[in-house]
Amino acid sequence: MPLPLEICIEELDATQQLDATQQTAPYVRCVALPGGEPGLALDREGMVRWMPDAPSGGLYGLWVSGDDRLVLLRGDDAGPITVERAGRQVAAPGGKPVMLMDQDLLRVDGRRLRVHIHGAAEQIHAPEPLAALGRVVRATAAVLALGAMVGPTTSEARAIGPEPIEVRSAPPKMARTRTVDCTVGVMKKTKQGLLVHATCPKEETIPVGALGRILDPGTNAPLKDGGVRVKSVKGTKVVCEAAQLKQPVKATTLRFQLY
Q1: CA distances (Å), 58 to each of 76, 140, 206, in order?
Q2: N or C: more exposed end of the chain, with fewer CB within 10 A?
Q3: Confidence at 75, pLDDT banded by 50, 70, 90
Q4: Do residues 215 and 228 make contact, with C-beta atoms less than 8 angstroms apart?
Q5: What is the pLDDT of residue 131?
Q6: For residue 45, what are the CA distances in angstroms to 20, 25, 91, 110, 172?
Q7: CA 120/CA 72 separation, integer angstroms
Q8: What pLDDT, on the 0 to 100 scale, is given for residue 41?
């Protein structure tokens, strides 16, 4: 069962001008969603986008594959983008997924972007800039990413060299999911954050820990900061934590993609 991945994208060229959404932060904290779901992407200038309105063909999608790997998929109309790893480099072909690893370097439109993979995401949220990511946090992220894989020892790694950059012939496998919409009830502010109460269909079982998204009642699209995590379930009633929302919002639907 593929899970959303928490990643950071690091802007390596500190003197390069960033746009207003990223301000001057060298790191952008992001969540990549399982393949096929609209979510995280880079535009042609290498800027991070979330559920963009532009056609996907002109973007570089960042997804999670069916085997829990981070995927870069270049749209057919997007310009060149290169993946570099320990002296190896691959120009991403259009429509063919390139499998990314922690510390891979992306080159797009003169930008150099370092990918940091932290592990399974606890919330689905829009990208947010971070002013700094300390050495301890970076080291922890690297350990988490490496700990998720069974790899060679240091001496073996020296012997075999860096892992080749894998390009697959088929797009990322679609996660087998079903959509479950629950009706939003009350939202309450507590010391722990904003809690969202909802009622779900009686034929569905929503597991504790499931990730969902509050939908905008006007557009029926996920709210920018509307990611939730289920804290408790009692029959058809669920209570969720919305970590990114500071105030209750007008909404009627809470959507889950269940595997």
Answers
A1: 7, 34, 36
A2: N
A3: confident
A4: no
A5: 64
A6: 14, 16, 16, 8, 23
A7: 17
A8: 92
What gap in Å lies between CA 11 and CA 176, rounded to an integer?
A: 34
pLDDT score of 51: 76
Give the Cα separation of 222 and 213 in Å (integer).
6
What CATH number has the domain bearing residue 151?
2.60.200.20
Per DSSP bridges, beta strands 40-42 and 178-190 are unpaired
pLDDT digits (tens, 9 = 90+) for 201-233: 999 989 988 888 999 988 888 887 888 989 999
Q: How many domains does the chain have?
A: 2
**74, 43 contact by CB (below 8 A):** no
The whole-number pLDDT of residue 77 equals 85
- Residue 122 region by backbone torsions, left for phi larger than 0, else alpha for psi between -120 and 50, else beta: alpha
The CA-based dihedral angle spanning residues 243, 65, 22, 257, taken in that order and rounded to the nearest 10 degrees: -30
Residue pair 57/75 in contact (Cβ under 8 Å)? The answer is yes
For the entire predicted model, the pTM comes to 0.67
Q: What is the CATH number of the domain that holds 234?
A: 2.40.30.270
64 and 182 share one domain: no
> What is the spatial distance between Cα 30 and Cα 40, in angstroms, rounded to a whole number?
8
Alpha carbons 60 and 113: distance in angstroms, whole number: 13
Instruction: Note the pLDDT of residue 191.
Output: 78
Tokens standing for residue 156: 């073996």
What backbone phi and psi angles, to 5 degrees, belong to 254? -120, 120
Domain carrying residue 12: 5-160
